[in-house]
Amino acid sequence: MKDLYLIRHAKSDWEYAHLNDFDRPLNERGLRDAPRMAAKISKDWKRPELILSSPATRAYQTAQFFRETWNVSWNDFSLQESIYEATPEALLETLSWFTSRVSRIAIIGHNPGLSLLIRQLTGSDVELKTCCFAKVSTDHPEFKNSGCKLVDTLSPSDL
Questions:
Q1: What's the rounded Cα separation, in Å, for the pair 32 and 10?
Q2: Is the pLDDT of residue 150 over 90?
Q3: Ranges 10-24, 60-74, 108-122: which has the least confidence
Q4: Where are the domains of the chain?
Q5: Which among 46, 53, 60, 87 counts the fewest CB atoms within 10 Å?
Q6: What is the pTM of this model?
Q7: What's the burial of 20, exposed, middle or buried (CB within 10 Å: 0-12/13-18/19+)?
Q8: Whether pLDDT at 1 is above 80
Q9: Would you say 133 and 154 are in contact if contact means Cβ atoms under 8 Å apart?
Q10: Which CATH homologous superfamily contains domain 2-158?
Q11: Do residues 30 and 12 touch, judged by C-beta distance below 8 A?
């Protein structure tokens, strides 16, 4: 069994008009929601063996709350440029580099790529809003366009 945790970055700050999209940090709500979501998810689901994060500031900040709460070492954390503004196909390609080594992977990234990936893998019409979580599982050795199941979703409003 392979598990994929998909987490959209927490709410970002649009206050700094001079920053480009890549450099936008989390806002007050994002800084509140990310640790709460990390705490809840770490109680309900096993720690991932690997966390892959977009290097965009808001995703990286979100990822750190999850990495610390799950107690994932820096050796099992990787920034992947391919996750920023990724299509579902790009996300699957990134996953393919790691799925032979681990059974549980978390990706912290962006929409629309994450929501489209869930739809492509499971057929479920899930829209990950900021700081939302989805768990997808498969019995196959890799995540493919079929044979995956949406196991759970969680949003900050559920807490």
A1: 9
A2: yes
A3: 10-24
A4: 2-158
A5: 46
A6: 0.95
A7: exposed
A8: yes
A9: yes
A10: Phosphoglycerate mutase-like (3.40.50.1240)
A11: yes
Identify whether the C-beta of residue 45 lies closer than 8 Å to the C-beta of residue 5.
Answer: yes
What strands, in cross-sheet order, belong to the sheet with 77-79? 77-79, 50-53, 104-109, 2-8, 133-138, 148-154
Q: Rounded CA gap, 159 and 156, in Å?
A: 6
- Amino acid (1-letter code) at residue 16: Y
Is residue 47 within 8 Å of residue 71, measured between CB atoms? yes
pLDDT digits over 11-53, tens only? 999 887 788 999 999 999 999 999 999 999 999 999 999 999 9
Tell me how far apart the alpha carbons of residues 47 and 64 are, in angstroms, rounded to a whole number. 14
Cα–Cα nearest to 122, from 144, 90, 142: 144
Helices marked H in the chain: 28-44, 57-70, 88-96, 113-122
